[in-house]
Each structure stands twice: as C-alpha cells, then as structure tokens.
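Work Package 3 committed the consortium to producing structural models of liganded targets before the mid-term review. Because experimental data for this complex are still outstanding, the team generated a predictive model from sequence and the ligand definition alone, so that downstream docking and mutagenesis planning could proceed in parallel. The input record is reproduced below exactly as it was submitted to the modelling pipeline, together with the SMILES string for fe (ii) ion.
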Amino acid sequence: MTRKSNWKSEFSLGIGPIDRQHQQIFERLLAIENSVEKRDPWHILGFLVRELADQLKFHFAVEEALLELAGYPGLASHDDGHRRLMKGVAELEASLRKQGGTGDLAVFFEDWFLRHVLHEDRAYVEFLRERLPQALNTP
Ligand SMILES: [Fe+2]
Ligand SMILES: [Fe+2]
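The resulting structure, written out as tokens with the ligand in place, is given here.
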C-alpha cells in the first residue's frame, strides 16, 4: 500500500475528529515500520505497538458511539470489522515480538488502511451527512 508515504487529503472522510484519529494511527504505523527497520529493541517497538492498540481501541469506541447515535443500520457488521482489527493488532504484536519481520505489518497496514478507512468507514459518511450533519461540521 502507501507505506513510506504521507497522509494525503484524499484519504480524509470529511469528519474532522475521525480524520485526525485515522491520520494519527497511520503515522503510528509508519513509526512502527521505521522501528522495525532500525531493529529497535522490543521495549521500544513493543511500546509503539501498545500505543497503536490503545489508539485503535479509542478510535473504534468513538466511531461506534457516533454510528449508534446516528442509528447507522450497518453498525453490527461495522463493529465486526473493528473487532477483526483489534484481533489483527494482537496478532501483529505477537508476530513482531517473535520475528521482528515487516510482513505482517504490511498485511495489517492494508487491512486497516484500505479496508477500514478507505472502504468500511467511507460507507457510513453519506448516512452521517444526512442523519447527523453536526458531526461533519465538527472542525
Ligand atoms: Fe475508522
Ligand atoms: Fe470504522
């Protein structure tokens, strides 16, 4: 995917707080990749991965609360996607701890970025725009 690249405005959904969280998670993944490449010791790499897990947990809670408030009909399957990614970050942590390889990181990057941000999240934007326009006007 777009590893080694910067966050681009076309990745944005047009919902300020959500976009900022996506961008921070994207940057955390780049930092993890950089840490793997530098062969940082586990206490450094592991710390970044724990921070990623915390950021994701918070991000998913915010999104789920927003979608619930809006009455989003696809909430249950969207939640499943979030659970899949939390499982994915636990697997990523285990694999990085064991081998320090970037293979699983690339897979996670794609799953998180392409599937979650560009596909699954983009699917709720129109609904939110109609049902909860004030969420989209948040700077
Ligand atoms: Fe998201
Ligand atoms: Fe989501």
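Reviewers should note the following from the model. The CA atoms of residues 81 and 116 lie 7 Å apart. These observations will guide the Year 2 experiments.
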